[in-house]
């Protein structure tokens, strides 16, 4: 789909074109002048040379300044001169508008830019041999500068950059989401999108400094502030958790849409128990309180969102939490019912595990579904390996990686290494250890709902839904109260053909169970300190690359297979049948464009986000047009003005082929603004304005008063939710006031917890919040 821009700032008289630049530089021809600048230029602020420089296109300026790879003087220049918003990259010849916060496409902009500026980007100049060319295979092969012990961040970002389904989303659909989310703060998503677009541009620089990503991460997670070394897997969980928070959108499944259409009520959410609700992206916890097996200097212990359990599963959940668990259950709730959310993170990385406990007395089996973002696998000891090999048949001995074989020297070295640093194993051994049954006895006895007593039980887990990209974390680090250690055992893993079939439930919905490796994060060193690198498969060139901060070099498959893996990324294998179907859809589309008369009388519309999944996912799932349609079949109010960006017109023949194969929907052949949702949106906007205006008036009175009694306390965590709501950063209500985290129970009364995160309110402000949202408890600081 051809990229378009709607930058209105190019019409400013200050951007009169580049003819003046050519005359000032005493050069003949625009292409020659820019080529010379790109070869000889340096930043006029810090004198740093290089090809990744930016040219201000204002006719009274034309300053050449460095970008994010150095000190980012181009951004500082825009802050000082607000009208100098269009900057040209002298390496890629792409234009960035600081006011639009996006790229401006000169040949495809609305409104059309002035002719002088357009001259540079005519087809003759764009195809000119004078312009520097970079082969298509180099896309994505860019080093990331170390900004001070940030190898953990660079390795994680390089691995995610080479996850094609996620990267394609940020290249094609993230600009849509960005403008769609004007009501939300998307600083990390914007920073990551800009990084991905630079890394995967047609003319990428050799290195990029991920300054904006690091700044956005530090803004949200205080633990990453400073220059200490951190765990790469811990960073991955925090990073993807925040991406999910910024990009998540509510959605309804097929059953809820049917209920809503039958009731025809716009203000009611479909009812659903907590135990059946969608489990959103939530980070896992360590195995137990005394021992954590995440990486060195790990500080992340649990997910940031509230964890909720159903009342009937309380004892069962306690039993499950005693053993290693991939992720705790969480629901994101609104006022009266649980709300389902999805994002590109959950679509790509989320799977589901069915955890079961069987009572050995009455044989009652209790089940609970858990969502996982990664599988944290233990590394078995020598005794555990013996038990596993005796009880589990080694069906993986015949691997597709027979071409990746160790020589006798490597075999001997690993054999000797195993005696000193632990036995060597295989990834299948770790999976078998993770999914093996655990006995619940002694202090870990299971509280049976049927027996109403503590009973011995057996806990076992199987996979219900496989993710598109399977992330596997090997627990190489053990943190004890007095010391930390690293398990340096060599764990072999398949490059191609990881088969997850032995650990699936009989009712598993995933048809494809074979995975191929696409990236590995490696930790070098000890638990006290070390260095992270990343091996990743560059899809355009089909070449394995080693990313070591600023360095990016090709490596052999054997080098990848013999590394000491810490985090592995496996992608579902795309089948030939699915590739043939994609080509069939492409041929149908071209045929309809060539002969409109064969397309029928109806035109249907399909979600651009789902179509991106169709191009990159092995199993894209059902069509979900809820990305732009409301529950009543109309277009969502915030997206009615941007239909070209949120939906794609297809012929009836193409729609029938897609819907027959994948199902879903709903079918849409008419685009209209939903009057019920529009009215609801207007009511919500009015409520936001009234609450915000009332708060500002009462806050002004509170600040002007010399003494105000009584003074109330409110938890800042809840206040931030309310602030995001009234400032249109979040569309959902904040829910009841949650003051419980800032209180402690003393003498039977709730009092303010010392050093808690709270704010002071006047009585009028407290009554404002309590009257609208309820909740509590009421905390009086001074009466």
Give me some keywords for this one.
8-stranded mixed β-sheet; 25 helices; 40 strands; 33% helix; 21% strand; globular
Notes on the protein architecture:
The model is unreliable at 17-33, 118-137, 178-186, 264-294 and 297-337 (pLDDT under 50). By secondary structure, the chain is α+β, with helices and mostly antiparallel strands. 33% of the residues lie in helices and 21% in strands. Strand 4 (95-97) and strand 5 (102-104) form a beta hairpin. The longest helix is centred in the last third of the chain and has 30 residues, at 675-704. Strands 14, 20, 24, 25, 26, 27, 28 and 29 form an eight-stranded mixed sheet that branches. Strands 2-1-3-4-5 form a five-stranded antiparallel sheet, covered by helices on one side. It is globular.
Question: Could you give a short description of this structure?
Answer:
The chain has 783 residues and is an alpha+beta fold. It contains 25 helices and 40 strands.
Count of DSSP strands? 40
> What's the overall average pLDDT, rounded?
76
Helix content: 25-40%
Query: Measured on Cα atoms, how large is the radius of gyration?
Result: 29 Å
How much of the sequence is in beta strands? 15-25%
What is the overall silhouette?
globular
Structural class: alpha+beta
List the total number of helices. Answer: 25
User: Biggest sheet, open or closed, and with what strands and sense?
Assistant: 8 strands, mixed
- Unreliable stretches (pLDDT < 50, length at least 5) are 17-33, 118-137, 178-186, 264-294, 297-337
Q: Give the terminus-to-terminus CA distance.
A: 64 Å
